[in-house]
Amino acid sequence: MNTIADGLLYTHTSNIHEIVFHDVRNATMSVFMDQLKTIIAVTPAGDTMRLLLHVPAIPSIQYMVGKVREIRASGLTMPQARIALIYVPSLQLYLLNMVVRALVRSSTLKLFHKKDEAEARQWLSK
After folding, report:
1. 45-85 residue pLDDT tens
2. 8-13, strands of its sheet edge to edge
C-alpha cells in the first residue's frame, strides 16, 4: 500500500511501515503525525510497531515534542516500537545520532546511513 501526501510517501509492506520524507516542514511533520496515529491505532495489542523513516534533515524539535504530547493526550496506547531512521550523512544528523544513542535504548530506535538501509530492514525484522 502506497500513500503520497504533502511532503512524504508512506508504504506498508508485511510488518514494516515505511515513510520517506521529502522535507521536514511543520506541515509535513503534521501529516506524518496523523499517519503515525493511524499506525498506532491499527497495530494489534502485543505486536511491535516497526517504522522505517527516511529523513533528509532534523525537523523542528519543539514542534515534534508538541505533536507527541498531542498523541499521548489522545488516549492512544503506544505499542512497543522499533524505529529505524535512515539519513544522508551530515554533521547535524551525526550529532543527533550521538544524542539518540546516549538517551534511547538501542532496542527501540537506531539511526542508519542511507548505504546501510538493508541492515536497517534486517534490524527491524528481528
Report:
1. 899 999 999 988 878 878 887 888 888 888 888 888 898 98
2. 2-5, 8-13, 16-21, 48-55, 80-87, 109-113
Give me the half-sphere count of Cα atoms (radius 13 Å) on the Cβ side of residue 80: 8
DSSP-derived 3-state class of residue 68: helix
Complete domains list, the chain, with CATH = 2-124 (3.30.750)
Phi, psi of 36, rounded to the nearest 5 degrees: -65, -40
- Find where cell 488516549 sits: 75
The Cα–Cα gap between 8 and 17 comes to 13
Whole-model pTM above 0.85? no
Count of helices and strands (H, E) across the chain: 4, 6
Given this model, what pLDDT does residue 112 score?
87
* Phi–psi pair at 33, nearest 5 degrees: -65, -35
Tell me how far apart the alpha carbons of residues 44 and 30 are, in angstroms, rounded to a whole number: 24
